[in-house]
Design a protein that fits this description.
Elements: H1 2-114, H2 118-170
Helix pairs in contact: 1-2
């Protein structure tokens, strides 16, 4: 009976050893799985942190672009007001030019009437020639100013278009792909 009990004790001891070995291997697998999950959670936190940073940078970029848009809208309004003023000035200049042309016609009529009298003709011709030169110089100066204004406007339009193209080219930033 004693050998039976010793054998039974050995069987129980071996069974317990097997159970402990089984629990250890199971515990090792569980710890490995736990470490894998911890690593995944850490990776997810890192991805979330990167995405939050990307969202913040994107929001800052949107705000910056919105400020640029507001500034450009203000510039456009200023330019439109300036164009309106220049249009009014051009209309005024054209009316003055028409008036000067009508005045020129009046001087021509006066010159033809003054041909009747030789003495008056010489004096009148000299005076009217001087006034016509002044008017022509004024008209030419106005036309030169108008041409310079048109050139400045065209330069402004070209600069504006170049700036818009630069902004359009700068606005095509793509974010980096997320890390795995």
């Amino acid at each position: 009976m004693r050998s039976f009990l010793v054998t039974l004790l050995m069987v129980f001891a071996l069974g317990l050893c097997g159970l402990v070995a089984f629990q250890w291997t199971r515990e090792v697998r569980i710890r490995q799985r736990l470490q894998t999950l911890v690593d995944e959670v850490q990776d997810q936190k890192e991805v979330i942190q990167n995405l939050n940073g990307l969202v913040k940078r994107t929001e800052e970029e949107v705000e910056r672009l919105e400020n640029i848009r507001k500034h450009l809208n203000n510039t456009i309004q200023t330019n439109l007001a300036e164009l309106s003023r220049l249009d009014k000035e051009l209309d005024k200049t054209l009316r003055e030019n028409e008036r000067l042309q009508q005045q020129l016609e009046a001087y021509k009529e006066a010159l033809s009437r003054a041909n009747e009298n030789i003495e008056r003709q010489n004096q009148t011709i000299a005076q009217q020639n001087e006034e016509m030169k002044k008017l022509a110089d004024e008209r030419n100066a106005i036309v030169r100013k108008y041409n310079e204004l048109i050139e400045q406007f065209n330069d402004l339009v070209q600069k504006w278009n170049a700036q818009q193209e630069a902004l359009a080219a700068a606005a095509t930033n793509t974010p980096p792909p997320p890390r795995k």
